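Hi support team,

I submitted a single chain yesterday and got back a structure, but I'm not sure I'm reading the token output correctly. Could someone confirm the output below corresponds to the sequence I sent? I've pasted both exactly as they appear in my results page.

Thanks,
R.
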Amino acid sequence: MAREILAALRAAEADPTVHVLGLTGVGRFFCAGGDIHGIAEQLPANRPRYLRELATAAHDLALAIVRSRLIAVAGVNGAAAGAGLGLLLVSDWVLVSENARLVAAYSTIGLTPDTGVSFLLPRAVGHQRAVDLTLNGRRLTGVEAVEWGLANQSVPAADFAERLAQVEDGFLQGAVHALGPTKRLLRAPVIQDLETHLLAETHSIAELSANPDSVDLLDRYANG
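Hi R., thanks for writing in. Yes, this is the structure output for that exact sequence:
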């Protein structure tokens, strides 16, 4: 899925008439993160390689969104967990349904964050709140996501689709030629550090996936 979204992003960037990238989900989830059952199907000895491949694909997408000239508007219609939280963090404008839930989820399965979460989350909410989300299992509602600085606006579920379209259209009413250059200036201070940090996240989540305690936690979670 990460590779498919990346391909769509590249196609949109190649069209000079496109200025906004919309990211949203369908149903109960914006993005539920990695496929826990898919990971659990791997033998413990194979999980580092498998997680490295998954994380690399997700990180390629995250970095491409941050570097893109397109304004990324995240429409968080439902749960954003793990890498889903990362997609929210690399977006430029975030609308959240009041029904949405934001959760880091990594500690539940004995893994460390990926998709830039450990880099961008403390910068967005502060160290203590980042610890609460990543290590203490804190879940945020859509309203709390705005209060914590993770989203620009929350709306009732019934108004979500209409408001998301309004936000996307709103960016196109101004000086669209200035959107990309302004985003580039806003993102420039973090891009190089983020790229380096994503490599560290990939190494950490891959190596930890073979830890016996992590294997046990993930398997128990996958099996309900």
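A quick pointer for reading it: Residues 2-161+175-222 form a domain with the 2-enoyl-CoA Hydratase; Chain A, domain 1 fold (CATH 3.90.226.10). Let us know if anything else looks off.

Best,
Support desk
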